[in-house]
Design a protein that fits this description.
Blueprint: H1 2-22, H2 26-46, H3 53-58, H4 62-73, H5 78-85, E1 90-92, H6 96-100, E2 108-110, E3 125-130, E4 134-140, E5 145-150, H7 164-179, E6 182-184, E7 187-189, E8 197-199, H8 211-227, H9 235-239, H10 279-286
Parallel strand pairs: 1-8
Antiparallel strand pairs: 1-5, 2-3, 3-4, 4-5, 6-7
Helix pairs in contact: 2-4, 2-5
Length: 306
């Protein structure tokens, strides 16, 4: 009985620690983990990766699932996940992620050359190791948070002799200098710090434009509306019912988009059906409709109708 109570207490303690680390309960984590694993499985079907990605995804940690899920909530698409897994440099206009991704149990300070304009004493770069991310590195930017996955971790520092991982990290840097591509855990990516991948950009902030640009844009929008036939009838009839004139069509740009307006999770993905249709569906699709002219009773053998 004592062992059972102790085991239950340890289980509850471990669960509470994991919940405190991830900020999510176990049910939500399992759903989150399954979703991230499915995203990795989908992108692995069309992309070229180093071997071992799917077995690594099977051992996805709560922290890794949290990071990818947070990126997905901020507009990450499956094709963009391919670049991230290959070491693409990501910028997210959300400074709260810098603190959220500092997991007490697995995160550690890191030294890097990224975003040198940031005060590293106030916002040090943070590393984290995992089976999928290998070495996750993130830090602050002036407007948000940056993220990059590395193939080989490095721990350069004062009063420390270089390790084998440090030498491998130097080799990855040589590959970067030659190919101009980041060396990620599962491949190479052209999304470098100079040409990063943007997620959740702060483009909804009202910004004034010059009067000449506003007039040119308004004229272009009005011209598009005048030539656009959005009805299902003839163009002659559509011309009799033109759209209402607006004094400033530029002011309505972006107001119809939701908080996550865009192409969605599978935008620009190479998605296909990998299963054959059911027999019932195939039989229905193969049925030929009756000719539109045969409205009366069927003719008899002598050609007369019954």
């Amino acid at each position: 009985m004592k062992r059972t109570r102790v085991g239950a207490a340890l289980a509850r303690t471990g669960q509470s620690v994991r919940d405190a680390v991830t900020g999510r309960d176990s049910r939500r984590f399992e759903a989150e983990r399954a979703r991230v694993q499915l995203m990795i499985e989908i992108t692995s079907q069309t992309g070229e990766y180093r071997k071992g990605l799917l077995p690594a995804a099977a051992g996805l940690s709560p922290e890794e699932a949290t990071i990818v899920s947070d990126l997905e909530e901020r507009g990450l698409q499956v094709p963009q996940l391919r670049d991230i897994l290959r070491g693409g440099h990501v910028l997210v206009d959300d400074p709260q992620l810098y603190t959220k991704w500092r997991f007490a149990s697995v995160s550690h300070p890191r030294i890097s050359s990224h975003h040198r304009d940031i005060d590293k004493t106030k916002y040090p770069d943070i590393g984290m190791r995992g089976v999928v991310v290998r070495e996750k590195l993130h830090g602050r930017t002036a407007q948000g948070t940056w993220l990059q996955l590395e193939k080989t971790p490095a721990a350069f520092g004062a009063r420390k002799l270089p390790s084998l991982d440090d030498l491998r990290h130097l080799m990855d840097y040589v590959v970067y200098r030659i190919t101009r591509s980041n060396v990620g855990p599962w491949g190479l990516s052209r999304m470098t710090e100079r040409h990063p991948l943007y997620l959740s950009p702060a483009v909804t902030i009202p910004t004034a434009v010059s009067p000449s640009v506003a007039r040119s844009l308004a004229a272009a929008l009005q011209r598009i509306e005048d030539t656009d036939d959005a009805t299902s009838v003839s163009a002659d009839l559509a011309a009799r019912f033109p759209p209402p004139d607006r004094a400033d069509p530029v002011a309505e740009l972006g107001q119809a988009l939701s908080a996550r307006g865009g192409r969605g999770l599978f935008g620009n993905s190479e998605i296909w059906v990998s299963q054959t249709p059911s027999r019932v569906t195939a039989s229905v699709l193969n049925q030929r409709p009756e000719p539109s002219g045969s409205t009366g009773p069927a003719p008899t053998n002598d050609g007369e109708r019954a």
